Amino acid sequence: MQGFSYHKPASTADAAGLLAANPEAKLLAGGMSLLPVMKQRLAQPSDLVDLAALADLKVIDTSGGGVTVGAMVTHDRVARSPEVKGAIPALAALAGGIGDPQVRNRGTLGGSIANADPAADYPAALLGLAAQVRTDRRSIAADDFFTGLYETALEPGEIVLAVDFAVPDGAAYMKMPHPASRFAVVGVFVARSGATVRVGVTGAAACAFRASSIEQALGERFEPGALDGIRIPASEMSSDIHADADYRAHLVRVMAQRAVAAILAGAD
């Protein structure tokens, strides 16, 4: 690991100022992704700007009718939060299935989505729940946030403050986890609000995406059997040592069917 300067700002404004003054600086949230790549010298920031002291980024709030989760809230807090469990149980369950206890107690929502790992779990939830990503400059719709492999709509120096999630009538997340990392080989988040169905997919392609064909089919008939004839194009899927494109395309449909079944079972 190369040498760097360490900063622990007391406010978001201070953090933004440090980023502006040091173009090669990186934000440090949980460090679950950044520190390993620094050790491998795949990233060599001149400065680390640690957000750990910013209490306003560690808030979970349900007072506005939705669920707001601060960028520095850990996965474990989301999983255990009575507010999240009461409003969006599927989001709490998703967080509880991330990695292992060490990762869940250090990793953060903001760090995860800013890193935009193609197999991370949260991106599917952001898309399925029509979330808004609030930064120190603007609000970005989840549909516009994930733009490519480890790429987002964030501009240089922009800081994620929180994510605002809409509360659906019902939702569920199902994934085929990698047996070692617990990352999603394929993960599908289905959310139903009235006649509107949103389906976020992670792990299957270069970045998370919405499965429009599945959304349309479920909007017409919300049951697992509605997806029997759906075929996800394998040409749009990723292939690697864990799964080929054809298998991932198959898993998208299967995980969606399981999510729908879970939503219907919860509504009984």
Automatic annotation (TrEMBL):
InterPro entries: CO_DH_flav_C, CO_DH_flav_C_dom_sf, Diverse_Substr_Oxidored, FAD-bd_PCMH, FAD-bd_PCMH-like_sf, FAD-bd_PCMH_sub1, FAD-bd_PCMH_sub2, Mopterin_DH_FAD-bd. The keyword Ribonucleoprotein does not apply. Keywords: FAD, Flavoprotein, Oxidoreductase. The keyword Nucleotide-binding does not apply. Residues 1-170 form the FAD-binding PCMH-type domain. SMART domains: CO_deh_flav_C (SM01092). PANTHER family: XANTHINE DEHYDROGENASE SUBUNIT C-RELATED. This is FAD binding domain-containing protein.
